Amino acid sequence: MIGEWIALPVLRSAGAGPSAPLADQVRYPTAERLLAHCDAVLRLPGDSTGADQDVATARRRGLPVYHDVNEIPYRTPQESA
């Protein structure tokens, strides 16, 4: 899940776009609140201030940060139950 997936529709409903002054007040706080419900972060390659902020938040919260999908531990259905 990416914070923008939630934040951008909220911005649109307020009549604003991703580059509007209101965007920074919605986009990054939304991502931070979303991280409160995550078990880990997968940081994909590429420049992204928001993704770098998500990684910093995850590390402060003690969440694992993966940089490749193959690093994510596999769980069996029995382990998930």
Structure overview:
This protein is mostly helical and 81 residues long. It is built from four helices and two strands; from the N terminus they run H-H-E-H-E-H. The chain has helices at residues 3-13, 23-35, 49-60, 77-80, and strands at residues 41-42, 65-66. A two-stranded parallel ribbon has the order 1-2. Strand 1, helix 3 and strand 2 form a beta-alpha-beta unit. Helix 1 runs antiparallel to helix 2 (23-35).
Determine the strand fraction and express it as a percent band. under 5%
Question: In which range does the helix fraction lie?
Answer: 40-55%
| Number of beta strands | 2
Structural class: mainly alpha
Low-confidence stretches: none
How would you spell out the order of helices and strands? HHEHEH
Shape: elongated
Q: If strands are numbered along the chain, what order do they take across the biggest sheet? A: 1-2
Distance between the termini: 22 Å
Largest sheet: 2 strands, parallel
Counted by DSSP, the helix tally is: 4
- Overall average pLDDT: 86
Q: Gyration radius, to the nearest Å?
A: 15 Å
Short summary:
The chain has about 80 residues and is mainly alpha-helical.
Task: Please specify the SSE layout and strand pairing.
Elements: H1 3-13, H2 23-35, E1 41-42, H3 49-60, E2 65-66, H4 77-80
Parallel strand pairs: 1-2
Helix pairs in contact: 1-2, 2-3
